[in-house]
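Today's session is about reading a structure prediction critically. Students often jump straight to the picture, but the first step is always the sequence itself: look for stretches that repeat, for charged clusters, for runs of hydrophobic residues. Only then move on to the predicted structure, which in these notes is written as discrete structure tokens rather than atom positions. Here is the chain we will use throughout the hour.
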Amino acid sequence: MSTHFKPPGKEAMKSKTITSICMLAIIISLYATCYMLFFRTVDVDLTKDISIVYDGESGSASVKVFNSITDYNQRKQEFMDSVAYKVSPKKNLQNGDTLLISSTYDEDLADQYHIHPIHTIRKITVENLPERLSSVDELQPAFLKEINQRGTSYLKKNMEQILNEDFTDFYINSKPELQEQKLMYRIFMDANKKSNKDRILDIYAITAKGQVNVSAKGEKLEEKESTIYYMITYNEINTSFMLREENIYGEKLIYSGTKDLTNQKVFEKVIQNKYGKQFHITFLDLPVYTDDK
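Below is the predicted structure for this chain, in token form.
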């Protein structure tokens, strides 16, 4: 039996050639991709994507610098996770100050991933920080309306605690009932030092009914009414006209003796005794008031 070699046809040769070219193209493409991703040295701007967050008002503000982006490619992300930022100055900032932001990074990772860090230092001018009010005339009606709403909301949320803890005239097991709450005074507290913040105080007269022990010898309970003065503080009042939740807080106004706080001069003296010379006091007009039980 004889065997004859049959050379491949033109179509088979053409198919093999195309396959070889495609394979070569794929190999070149993979090599190029690997080179672009892992071997080519790339410039990485360290301060391009930083976030600069200020806290406070001009003259007493602080700053934080960070990069929270997490969608870089794999090698860049690992490197960027090693970057740390330092800013100077970082406290007592005011509009117009210049910040110097510097960055440090893992040099071994930079070499490993062929990264060339650029713009490792950046200068920033502080701007748009809220300023202290120059006059109470700058208080906007819409802002004062928001204070009314926040005050009402605060009392509604905390009234049960106020009734149970701040009405000390009542018998310990008494369950006080709210009779009336009335806004008596609203004052603007202009801080005399930068370390303090300007604030607004709302003082409410809150009347409740509860059981009182009227016997000095034993236990004889009668229902009586009692009134306390409760103060809501809105701290950090400035040109941002923002009321942050942590800057709103309330407390029972404590004062010695029996004073008639419906007398404005007597009340002002109580506030001066509480805060000393930290603030200059300005009485503000009260909103149109309706009783709110």
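Discussion point for the tutorial: The chain has a mean pLDDT of 88.
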